[in-house]
Amino acid sequence: MNFRPRCVTLLILVACGAPETGGTGGGSTAGGTATAGGTATAGGTAGGSAGGRAGGTAGGASAGGAGGAAGGTAPAYCATGGVMLWQNLEACGWAGRANTGVPAGRLLTSTVGRTVSADNTVIDGERIAGHLVITGKNVTVKNSIITWDGGGAGGSGVILVEAGATAIIDHVEINGLNHTHACIWHQGSQLTATAVNCYGVNDGIFSWNQNTGRADSGDHFTITDSYFHDLTHDAANGHIDGYQTEGAQHGVIRHNTYDFPSDANSAIALWNSQKNTDDIVIENNLMTGGGFVIYAEDYVGPGNATATENVANSAVGGYQLTNVRFLNNRFSTNNAPHTAQSNAPCVGSYGVWFYRGGWSPYFGGPSDLWTGAGSTRSGNVVLETGFDLDSGNKAGCN
What pLDDT, on the 0 to 100 scale, is given for residue 340? Predict the structure, then answer.
């Protein structure tokens, strides 16, 4: 199966009148419509770093994620979750609308989508209408807004990083108009995404092995300080995921916010149908919603319905899922189904860690037992209840 978009159209850069002001806040509804001129609050990290980025700076977010409001102490609700946390993400040191995307007051020039083939190109301060395809190396896109309708096709990305390309996406607002597979479709050799405001797509960022003969396709990615929200069922397969891969290696997913409803699929989905998934760190993220919040599953086993774990059967197809580390993540029940039967609901509709021992074709999971082959879970907690998730889901959530 190849999700590669059917065609890439080369468009010509044009300027359209006077510059516009940036700093949009992104969509607050399922429609994901950007509001013009949304303002950014100061900082979001303890001490208020100049960039206003949540975490990752001196005095930034701790393992719990709450770095505190600019120059002050984090409000108590930052540590206990609930509605107040989600309404004040930046004050709690997390990525939100105010500290991702284009900084407030930044002037933008209207342009159109295009293919960027020249190495070391820098795109700065643009409002781009259309598909942005990156084929060059060390291409930087920053302080910009990109909007594109991918026609709902699987494999479509508002930004496409092609095989062999390398890209830095920094403080960019990305809107797929509820009809595009991903904000960033990464099948390149390296991707760094920082302070991205992503909405209006089916999957936030997708790493894909393009089968071009390059072993590094979709690998070497870092996703930090970014806000994924208001995704859509109306593109690709309709299963909403914040990050997804069918085989990727050497990745870091750190200090991001994944704000999804309970009918989403997951915040993080790691699979291995294309190649080994290995050496992935998921650390200090804030997550809510989904069926299961996390999938980290070796699903190339032999189809033995009696297997309680897929580890013993994972060699079929030659692909494995190893060295996956979930460290100090914070999970919230805020968007979980709240029913009369449960005063302390699951984080996702069913739980945090995907596990279905008898469910074809998986027969197990999460794979590798989390203590073998370098994989581990440590410091993962439900904010509202304090429940320690390292040993597994809360009873009744699997």
Answer: 41
